[in-house]
C-alpha cells in the first residue's frame, strides 16, 4: 500500500522545545516520545527530532502581497513563540483522516507534504552550468600546456556546419587554420573558415579549450535547409555527404608526408540520426543504424585504420529529457557510426560532473559498450548559444583533449602504442568513474580525466643524474627556486635544528644569486644543459619560453648572466 | 529521380565514374556525378556510388549484384547536429518517456 511522507507542524510544549534544543547540540538525538502527540494512523520518524521554526512576528507588506519578497520580515527565536516540525508517514488512504484529526487536535497546527527531492538535472533549455574557464580548470589545461600538450602539430577536422575563424579569433582562440586541406560540400556557397557563425563554430571553439595550438580543418557538411515551419532553423545534411567528407580526410591521412610532418588527425563529429524513422527499417540490408556494412560505417573504420582518432557525440535522446527530435524514443538511440567500435562515443556531463538529462544512454547499436566516456557540456563558452550544449559540445571538448595528447604522442604507423585504439584505451582507463562502479551505459567509463592523462603522458621529469651532469648549474639557487623539479634531488635534506628560545626574528632571505659560471668545465656543462632543454623543453618539464629564458640566463658564450627578459622577474622563483 | 547508394567491389585499377559507367552499363546521367565513385575501404577495394533506381533495376536484371560485387541499396538518411538540444514541441510527449 502506498505511503505518504508528511510533515507535522506542532505548537510549543516544554518537552518539544527541550528535545529540539538538545538535538541542536547533539546530532545523535532523535524525537522523544514526550514531544510527540499521539495520532492514530500516523507513524513518526523518531530519527528526526523536532525542528524549531521561528515565528514570523511582522511582515511589512506595503503592496499587500503576502509573498512580497521586498517586504521586511522579523522573527522571534523565543521557544515559546516558535512552532516545531516533526515528520513521519501515513497510508495514502488515511491522509484525509489525518488532516481532519489534526484540525480537531489542539497543539497540532498543520500537515504538509514532504516530497522526495532530487538534484536538478540539466535539460534542453536549462541555463548554462559554469563556463569554459571551469572546463579549463577541470581539464588541467594549464598543466597540459606546460607539458607541451596543446594540440600543436595535430590536425583537428571539425565535420559540421563549418566554422568562422574570424569569430574564433575575436573570442581569443587562435588555432592555425588550414584552408587548403579543408573541405566543403559547396566551397562557393559555404567557404571553409568563413561560414556564418553557427553550430560548427561552437564545436571549433570547444576544441580549442584543450588544444589551443591545434590546426583546424573545416569540413563543411551540414547546411541550412528549408524549415518546415516559419521561424524554425533546420541544419541538416545527408549521410552520403559525410561519405565524401570522410574520403577527403582519408586522402589527407594517406598523402605523402614531408619530413617532420606528423600523421596525427582528430575528427570531431557532433551530429547523427535522431530517429529510426529517418533510416531503413531494422533488418533491412541497407539499414544504417545497425549495419556495419553500410558504406559510411565502412569508411569510418577505414579512416580509423589509417590512424585518425574519430569522436562522435553519443546523441541527445537521454531518458530524462530527450531532444524534441527524438520522437519520444530514448532506448537504443546511439546509432550507426556514433556507436562504432572504431570511434570514441562521447556522452555529456555538466561542470559538476552530473550527467545532463538529454545525453543518450547505451547500449550502442553497432557496439554494446557505448558511450565510451563522458565529457563536459552545457557551459557558457563560445557565445554562439546561451550554453555550449548537447553532446555536440561534449564531443569537441574531448576531441581537444585527444589533440593535446597527440601533441606528445603523435600517431606512428609502426608503433602500436600510438594507434587510435591505444589512445581510446588510455582515455577510458584513466576516466573518473561516475554512477555505478565501473562501466555503465549512462556515463561510459566516466568523465574524461585530462589531469591524469597529463600525468601519464608527461610526468614531471626528475633527472636522476642531473647533479652529476650539471654540477655548476645545480648550485644555482635561482634556477632551483624557479624550477624546483629540475633540482629537487640536489637540495640536501638537513635534519631539523631545535631552535633556542625565544625564537629570534627570521632574517630576510638573501638575494638569490643569478647564474655565474666560470671555468671551462662549467661552461661546457652550461652549454650541454642549454642544448638539452632547448632541444626538447617538454621532456624537462619546461615550456619553450622557459627553456629559452634559462638558456639565455646561462649565457654560455660569456659565462656571465644576461639580463632577464621582462617576462620573468628576478625573484620569480615559483617555489617560495 | 532519386539516386540510391550502392557499394562495388573492384580490385583492378582505381575505379572512376567513366570506368564504372562502361563496366556496369550505366549511363553517365544516371550516376550522381557530385558524389562520384568513392573508395570507402582501400584494403577491401570497396567503392560507393549513387545511381538512379532505373539503372539499379537493369543491374539487378543482369544479376550484377552477385556477379560483379555490387551490393545495396543502402540508406542515405538525413543527419543533424546534436546540439543545442531542443525542447519538445507542444503535444510531443517525449518528455514523458
End-to-end distance of chain A:
66 Å
User: Considering DSSP H and I runs of 4 or more, what fraction of the residues of chain A is helical?
Assistant: 25-40%
The secondary structure category of chain A is alpha/beta
H/I helix tally of chain B: 3
Treating each run of at least 4 consecutive H or I residues as one helix, how many helices of chain A?
A: 17
Number of strands of chain B: 5
Major beta sheet summary of chain A: 8 strands, parallel
The largest chain-to-chain contact, stated as pair and per-chain residue counts, equals: A-B, 70 and 40 residues
- What's the average pLDDT of chain A? 84
Which ranges of chain A are low-confidence, i.e. pLDDT below 50, for 5 or more consecutive residues? Answer: 64-70, 489-497, 511-518, 556-576
Quaternary class = heterodimer
The helix content of chain B, as a percent range, equals 10-25%
Q: What does the overall shape of chain A look like?
A: globular
Descriptive overview:
The complex is a heterodimer of chains A (576) and B (97). Chain A is an alpha/beta fold. Helices cover 28% and strands 15% of the residues of chain A. In chain A, the strands form four sheets. In chain A, strands 8, 9, 10, 11, 14, 16, 17 and 18 form an eight-stranded parallel sheet that branches. The relative contact order of chain A is 0.09. The model of chain A is unreliable at 64-70, 489-497, 511-518 and 556-576 (pLDDT under 50). Chain B has 97 residues and is of the alpha+beta class. Chain B has three helices and five strands. A four-stranded antiparallel sheet of chain B has the order 2-3-1-4. In chain B, strand 2 and strand 3 (46-52) form a beta hairpin. At the A-B interface, strand 13, helix 7, strand 15, helix 8 and helix 9 of A face strand 2, strand 3, strand 4 and strand 5 of B. Strand 15 (271-272) of chain A pairs antiparallel with strand 5 (78-81) of chain B, so a sheet runs across the interface.
